[in-house]
Specification:
The chain has helices at 2-13, 48-63, 91-98, 125-139, 184-188, 201-205, and strands at residues 20-26, 34-41, 69-75, 81-90, 103-109, 112-123, 152-153, 170-174. With 222 residues, the chain is an alpha+beta fold.
């Protein structure tokens, strides 16, 4: 539970005034998933006891034999906030990314994970979606996790997907107080489709505009 509390505190510390949502995804990866909202950590009102009660419910859902669940979290997508989400990155890439820019690298299964990257200003949901498309393309991330409202895995709980049961979701590193934040406007300038329907990753990588850079690209300039 300590990793969960730490992650929530860090996310909220750097996005003041933004609520954080916690949910349980029952039977993940089975085709019969069900999302259950467990609660909202209110930026102004919730006490530590409120948070611990939400996490107690999360622990019960995570360990349920009848309907085991992955525990998810996200900043309220309807609010502007500075957190960007990248999914399905290899552990090596996660660590390299966090060594260049501010973020929290989270391991979700053996060899794979997610990143919560910190921008230098709050961004709307549309801006986050555009920025995350750029990041997904450059980092070979999951192109389906770029909407600006995606849920991510909360550290401190186990994976319940078939074939991955029992693997812990852990914080690999937190560089939010060490590395520079992503420059939001510079990142958005790489999104030529901003304001119109985004082209597919294939069209971008096959002559449609922005091309994926070499893996050695430094992201510190973002």
């Amino acid at each position: 539970m300590r990793q969960a509390i730490y992650t929530i505190e860090q996310i909220m510390l750097r996005s003041p005034g933004v609520d954080l949502q916690i949910a349980a995804l029952h039977r993940p990866g089975t085709g019969d998933e069900r999302l259950e909202m467990l609660g909202t950590v209110d930026a102004m009102g919730n006490t530590t006891d409120d948070l611990r009660e939400i996490l107690r419910q999360a622990r019960g859902a995570n360990c349920s034999k009848r309907s085991p669940a992955n525990i998810l979290f996200r900043p309220d997508p309807s609010q502007s906030h500075p957190w960007l989400f990248c999914d399905y990155l290899g552990t090596e890439r996660l660590l390299a990314l966090a060594s260049q820019i501010a973020g929290i690298a989270i391991q979700t299964s053996e060899g794979n994970g997610q990143a919560r990257l910190l921008a230098d200003r709050p961004m709307s949901q549309d801006e986050r979606g555009a920025a995350q498309r750029v990041l997904s393309l450059h980092l070979d991330g999951d192109p389906g996790s770029v909407s600006g409202e995606k849920w991510g895995r909360l550290p401190g709980f186990t994976n319940q997907k078939p074939g991955k049961q029992g693997q812990w979701t852990n914080i690999l590193c937190d560089t939010t107080g060490i590395q520079p934040a992503v420059i939001a406007d510079r990142l958005l300038s790489l999104a030529p489709w901003r304001g119109v329907r985004a082209p597919s990753v294939c069209s971008l990588s096959c002559g449609g505009g922005l091309k994926p850079p070499a893996r050695s690209l430094s992201l510190s300039g973002l």
